[in-house]
Specification:
By secondary structure, this protein is of the alpha+beta class. It has one helix at residues 2-28, and strands at 32-37, 41-42, 47-68, 74-81, 85-89, 92-114, 123-134, 139-141, 145-151.
């Protein structure tokens, strides 16, 4: 009877050890994402770029994320893969590479354009969420990221001097 109890305890300890080891290896593969824009404010019809990158990636072969933005205010124009990653852009951002990459690097640069519905003074946010990466065998989690841009009034093209007053004299 003591042998049976000891075997049972050993099995439980082994299970806990395996679970603990698995949890550590999964957490070690997690990474964070970054998003930057080349402009924080834009004018009507202007294009801008948003670059998505990662920090702390280990053997990243691919990445998927939900991509969201207000399509009434901005529209997607194009994308260029970075660091050997090939992008597919839609409601999902899908990136894959022929060889794994580790560390901190850029994944994709996407170009957007302001629509006529993007009113002066308004802002909009481009966001990725539900980020998952793969090393070819395992899936691991990445952080969500976002970047915002604001619509500003266009600068006047009139550079003529309308008046000049100096010491009360015109």
């Amino acid at each position: 009877r003591g042998d049976v109890v000891m075997k049972y305890i050993n099995k439980i300890l082994f299970f806990v050890l395996v679970l603990f080891t698995f949890t550590l290896s999964v957490n070690a593969s997690n990474f964070s994402t970054t998003m930057t824009s080349n402009k924080s404010s834009i004018t009507a019809g202007q294009q801008f770029t948003v670059t998505v990158g990662v920090k702390g990636a280990k053997d990243l072969y691919g990445l998927t994320a939900s991509l969201s933005y207000d399509s009434a205010k901005i529209k997607y124009v194009s994308s260029i893969g970075q660091s050997g990653f090939n992008p597919t852009v839609g409601s999902k951002l899908v990136l894959d590479a022929a060889a794994p990459k580790s560390g901190t690097f850029k994944l994709v640069t996407m170009t957007f354009k302001a629509t006529s519905n993007f009113a002066i003074g308004q802002s909009t946010t481009i966001k990725i969420s539900g980020v998952e990466g793969s090393d070819g065998n395992n899936m691991f989690t990445g952080t969500a990221s976002s970047v915002s841009v604001k619509m500003e009034a266009p600068k006047s093209s009139n550079n003529y001097l309308s008046s000049l007053v100096l010491d009360g004299k015109t």
